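Response to reviewer comment R2.3. The reviewers asked that we include at least one raw input/output pair. We reproduce the pair for Magnesium and cobalt transport protein CorA here without editing.
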Amino acid sequence: METEFEKNTWVINYSLDGYYNRKFTLAEDTKLSKGDGSITWVNTYGLEYMDEFRKMVDGNNLDDFLLRLLLNQKMGNKVIELEEQLFVAARIVKTEHHNLESEQMFFVVAKDFIWCIQEKWGDHFDWIRNRIFENKGIIRKKKADYLLFFILETLVTNYKEKYEELVLMNNTLDAIIKQEPTPEFMFEVEQKKSMINEFKRASHGLRDIVIKLERVNVKGFHNKYFSELREQIGGLINDIDSDIQELESQINLFFSVQGHRLNEVMKTLTIFSVIFIPLTFLAGIYGMNFENIPELKWPYGYFILLGLMLVVTIISIIIFKRKKWF
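Raw output as returned:
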């Protein structure tokens, strides 16, 4: 009966002469190194199959320390050299959905096999599989280290494409000025910052892995491929840092524009207040209920007061104009 481990594991074996691609079976495929010059690529989805992992380790005479490493499902990013194998742990960002999720990946690498263990179902490696099946390029001529390079390069390329799709930096002044400081807008800004930082952490993690891979000294493992990959990741990180600076600049500009708008409103209100304060003062004096206010008996007192108010208003406006307050 097929186990859950076998349902979630595939095996590809290839060489210059041909390949096979099938569901993994413990009875036939436990032995990763075929000893015939072919390369084996085993892909497991799920980290919970510790009994099967033990069978794989024992069946291939791998270092027992691998079991301890595979137990740590929140390891992050590590490169550990074993006797004739290389253990790579990568905490990557899954980009299949708009909401980014993290995933732990493990790679056990030797000169003629890669065992790839992924926490969650799904990957972006179909184009590599197609190159193997169709014998495109030089992948069938190379060892497992070249396949690892292809897998990591796919992760970097996917980060670049998804980053450009999700993080569209809007640097036009008109768009910023038209925005209002609503809770929805601020939430959108925080989401964008969080997304950029998620890509930045993931990219830095991959860069650390590649830098360590450049320095490993494991039998049958060539690290010459990873210098170019480090440059690709460096370019992505530079783009992310540039976008972070641009976003911070846009946020500062946005609040500067909002502050300027507020100042203009306050200035307008202040001008109106200054104009109406003396008018209110005059109206307050002659609105008092005292009997002995001589001006109340003047036949033209009302018109004189209106004229005085008009003069005060005109003088205030002239003063504001000279001071260029409006």
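The chain has two domains: 4-257, 267-322. DSSP finds ten helices and seven strands in the chain. Further pairs are available on request from the corresponding author.
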